[in-house]
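dude i think i finally got it to work??
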Amino acid sequence: MLDKLLAILKHISEIIAEGNRGKSVLQEIVEFLSDSLEVEVCSIYIYDKKSEMLRLKATCGLVTDSIDKVTMYPGKGLTGISFANQTLLNIKSPQNHPDFIYFNESGEDLYNSFLAVPLVAGGICVGVLVIQRKIEEEFSGIVVDMAQSLSSQLAHLIINTDIIRELSEEQLIDNRKSKASVGEQLIMRGTPLNTGIAQGKAQRFTPILSMEQIPHADTDDIGQEIKIFENAVKITKEKTIELEQTAFSMISEVGAAIFHVHLLFLDDKTILDAVKNDIKANSHSVEFSLKQIFLRYQNQFMQMQNDVFREKVADLKDVLLRLCETVNEIKTGRVGQNLNQLKIEHRILVADELLPSDLIKLPLAQIDGIICKKGGVAAHSAILARALNLPAVIGVKGAFLNIEDGDHLILDSISGNIYINPSEEIIAQYEHHVTEEDAPGEIEHPHGPAFTADDTKIMLRANISLLCETNLLKKYGASGIGLYRTEFLYMIRDYCPEESEQFSIFKRIFESADGEEVTVRVLDIGSDKVVNYMNLLPEANPALGNRGIRVLLSNQNLLKEHLRAILRAATFGKLKLNFPMVTTIDELLALKQILKEVESDLTEKQIECSTDYKIGIMLEVPAVAMAIKRLIKHVDFMSIGSNDLQQYAFAVDRTNADVAHLANFLNPVFLEMLKNIGLEFSAFPDKELSICGEMAGSPLAAPLLIGAGIKDLSMSPRFIPEIRKTINKFSIDQCRKMLNEVIKFELPEEVEIYMKKQLDSC
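look at this
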């Protein structure tokens, strides 16, 4: 079925690319679908905004003269019901259905089976695909599945290629407003890049220049255009080096990684010669030749199976657009706009696409979240957003159609949901998940441990990914680093960082902790954390496959170099070494043996390294939760990774927005699991238990974690002040009683209501 579906989609794309606009293209599509799906009738109805009616725009099988004449209001007739309710209808003997409306001019009385599939794009229904046959029976599951899969793609193709001129952006926005006016909550969905929640006003971002804006233009002086191009290449190289330096000052881990790739493009003789040849052969302007070469390479890259090459399209576009800007500056004498001058004040940025240079040049301190239509999880801009800990959702189709400047947004980059002008009910649901920024004239937050109402010490530590985040430790009062994610150093590069690069960054991390403990999580890649140059094979279930320590045990040279850098840097602080995704004792023993070999090798070579450190593992797999007594004797501590533990406990891929909601850390079953983990650890007072997932930063969950015996919480630094205040309100005994109460409940919603009451009553 999949092969056939892909073939159909490809052919439809070719029809649209090659055909004329309007009805003739739709007509060709329905004729092709009728033949491919082996049905007697295939029709497309489109919503006409002017008349506010559904209109038959193309048909194969019905009377041709009925095109544009058969109309119906949404909600009237079977097709109208499918449109209004955005519901698939699969009916035999449709003429017997109470909502059936017969159109005499169409000739549809010959057909005894009816399938209507709404055409939905970006949450907006633009029409209905209707399939009919003479045989009196419902359509098979295969045909239904095929039609459903086609409908979404067909809806996007209709909008994106402007087949129906009435479906302009402004009209879609008007439809959005009328839909919202009747009290329906507008929700969009995409792929979350990281975990986090942001709330604020929308600000639409339009780049200074886009490929689409570059017009066809010819030149009368080919030689002059070539000279301008060559000069622009030199100037753009200089600008790229400046960007590289800016990126390094912001994010030390970036080094030359991103913009080194851009410099390689600017030195690529094949690309540069292709531009010159296009200018010479076709008398094109430099700008139009750059556009032509980009389109050529884009087609080549996108046909490749390897994600690494597909993601390079954005980098190539970034470079060539900067070349265009430079050409324009040379020709006009006007310097382009500095993106840092844009008025962005604590907004959620809404973009069609964000290129790496856009992110570096934007005033990132004023951006609380990002919503983007284009981009993949392995793209450089996506990795930067993740590293900067910005809540971000990508792949949001129709973002520009549905979101306006100033709209109130809640961006949930845990589930991938975006709430546009959320209702009071939605806002209330998120009030305990969103931390407000400090007011001007920053608040001085308390430092050191937190204390419960009965004076029990609770450690509050920070989760960080970047060296530039270490200034947040003091700002928010963190007691050291409870989770330092080392993977960004690897993810941002197209090559494995050398030991010296790692050592340089890790050393500064330890120094920034001012003598407090630093928990370094050993390289955790695989699944949603893509490292292009590792050439990990595609997997059907990557979250259950080659990830975390499994990757490292099969790449021991990489692991040893990584451990060498960590142990050397740890002489500048206090190290807790944490291994991710350990599931069995033999894995743990193998890791400890490798660690011992690395330490011995450094000592023999008289290279200064730490020998006084703690060894621990992430507790993120249910098998580990059930084997604590077996594993505990081999480690000094365990750190609960609540995000992954939920994922595996509930069999939910947390990167899949369709099912992510099923894994809720307030689920009584999950809370009881944590209680049992705490009880297991209570028998080993010399061993340490901490938690470093998103759950640790929730005021609703923190008292329950303490009730489970977890007294070491690590979270995004900005959550620490709120968690400190929450902990002060309750005694240990109250925390235990609350936990014992909520695990009797059945639903997470009951736990949430109960905990909100407890917090509000203090």
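The longest helix spans residues 222-250.
im so relieved honestly
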